[in-house]
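Bit of a strange request maybe. I'm writing a small parser for structure token strings and I need a real example to test against, not something I typed by hand. Could someone generate the tokens for this chain?
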Amino acid sequence: MQQTGRKISDLADKLVSAFPGFDLTGQRIAVKLYRLLAEGDPVPVPRLARALNLADETVSAVLSRVPVFYDDQGAVVGFGGLTVAEMPPHVFRVEGRTLYTWCAWDSLFIPSILNKTADVVSRDPITKVPISLTVEPDRVKRISPKGSVVSFLTPDRAFDQSVIVNFCHFVHFFISQEAGRAWTARHAGTFLLSVEDAYALGQLTNARNFGEALTTRVER
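Reply from user aminoacidic:
Good idea to test on real output. This should exercise your parser:
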């Protein structure tokens, strides 16, 4: 099931094409928003703008072009696969804070954006068996069960506010290829990736989507 580097690169191209492109300012906004959300609370747009020394209007204009979810006060609660709202089954713990990801793959690429280690707990939708991982910024350190895999779907449309229904609902962890194949056989267009390939795919898409903004110092 291990994919060739060429196939992973081609899939990265398709994923990046489905995501609205960022200029340098947009990249800074996106990375900072991920890192503020990882603190565990909704992020008001003015707070995000102040953190980057940008106008509120500039930040709002960038966020208007990408899938973002807000609370009743207008603060961001979900962005780019990460949310502070309870959203099982993909639990994503960073520095003792409990967050959630929209799909299995999000939990593999977001630690590199945060430059922090995440402990992930999910559940196989076929067997209902729990799956746990420790994902560091530069590798998947641990996964249990060891034979776990990830289902995937090549995007056939641009990511918008319906991304969770149109993409994320097809991307899960499974405890084995057998369990994964039982699920993909019933969902047209889906296929399996090893956890290692899914992680490598995330590294490629991170670099292409967020560029030099990823090297910004993480405040402690």
